[in-house]
Amino acid sequence: MSVIYDFSGKVALVTGAASGMGFAAAKAYADAGAAVMLSDVNQEALNNAVAELSSAKGNVAGFVCNVTDEAQVAALVKHTVDTFGGLDMAYNNAGIQVPAVDAADETAENFDKVNAINLRGVWACMKHELQYMREQGSGSIVNCSSVGGLVGLEKLASYHASKHGVLGMTKSAALEYAERGIRINAVCPGAINTPMVSDMIDKGVITEEFVAKKQPINRLGRPEEVANAVMWLSSDAASFVIGHALAVDGGFTVQ
């Protein structure tokens, strides 16, 4: 069954929107009638994503942004508001993975890199989105964590630190803004068939069969399945959902 949302007259912002879960969410927002600002650090991929959605939906735009740079994030949010006249929904999706490594051998460079994007980047996005949303007294923010924000897995300590941090920020900010008409939640995807996971499979870091067996549903998730969760959390259907970490993981965290 397909659930239809009506976001006509609303404005959505998606980071990491050139591919994978970000692109799927941007498309879903656009399909629901929202004006959508796509953001990504990859200019060429972003241009292609905007062109693809523009040909089908029209009311979309793109803005190159490195979420580790707060000034760029501030400019992104301002550009969104200037372009579309507001900001009602945001999916802070931009994130990376780093190579699996023994915790005793982790480099400071890797730790700083993954936390700069996955944690500080979400912090910067949420901060500047809230500065606008609190003035209008409404809005919905969905931050992208991971099953790595709910559990620990060996050799991924830095990555899991960043994703646990996202949930801490989400919960704290959600409490702060609940009475101000702004809902903040998070999605926690499991292994999803995205370019990042495909790259790990191509490099032999993991196999698709291995990952599938780790998830009770016995397959990789689809970006659209995460986008569906983002749409629900963004919508009035989730009006009483505050500070929640929604696992979209094929049953991984149930085990």
UniProtKB/TrEMBL annotation:
<dbReference type="GO" id="GO:0016491">
    <property type="term" value="F:oxidoreductase activity"/>
</dbReference>
<dbReference type="Pfam" id="PF13561">
    <property type="entry name" value="adh_short_C2"/>
</dbReference>
<dbReference type="InterPro" id="IPR002347">
    <property type="entry name" value="SDR_fam"/>
</dbReference>
<keyword id="KW-0560">Oxidoreductase</keyword>
<dbReference type="InterPro" id="IPR036291">
    <property type="entry name" value="NAD(P)-bd_dom_sf"/>
</dbReference>
<protein>
    <submittedName>
        <fullName>Oxidoreductase</fullName>
    </submittedName>
</protein>
<comment type="similarity">
    <text>Belongs to the short-chain dehydrogenases/reductases (SDR) family.</text>
</comment>
